[in-house]
Amino acid sequence: MFSIGELSRRTGVKIPTIRYYEQMKLIDAPERSQGNQRRYTKDGLNRLSFIRHSRDLGFSIDDIRGLLELSQHPDKPCRDAHGIAVEHLLNVQARIAKLRRLERELKRISQCDADSVSDCAVIETLADHNRCETEH
What we know:
The mean pLDDT is 90. This protein has a two-stranded antiparallel ribbon. By secondary structure, the chain is an all-alpha fold. The radius of gyration is 23 Å and the shape is elongated. The chain has a domain at 4-76: Multidrug-efflux Transporter Regulator, Chain: A, Domain 2. The protein contains 6 helices and 2 strands. The longest helix is centred in the last third of the chain and has 32 residues, at 78-109.
């Protein structure tokens, strides 16, 4: 059995976040000791590690909930978990593409060599979105 502090140390998840995951029903409310301390099992540690790794990979709480549900039913088809991962990958790729467009635009406008703000490409572009070369 692990205290909430030990669980936090072992997983790298902060104590308030562990409590939040309990409130969100991602992890079961643990047993309590006679002193009313939370006492987590090895299963609780494993589940929190799963959640932490999923969050590190950017999965949403809803996606994690779905993946946790699937993990409790090993007979279910892998395609369900695969579908969640592929959808997340597509979202990440879309965000990366958007960030690359943003990077190009920021590089372009930051190469301003004007002497005064009245001729500054940064200020002019921010004031008029039509001056942007890409949709970002």
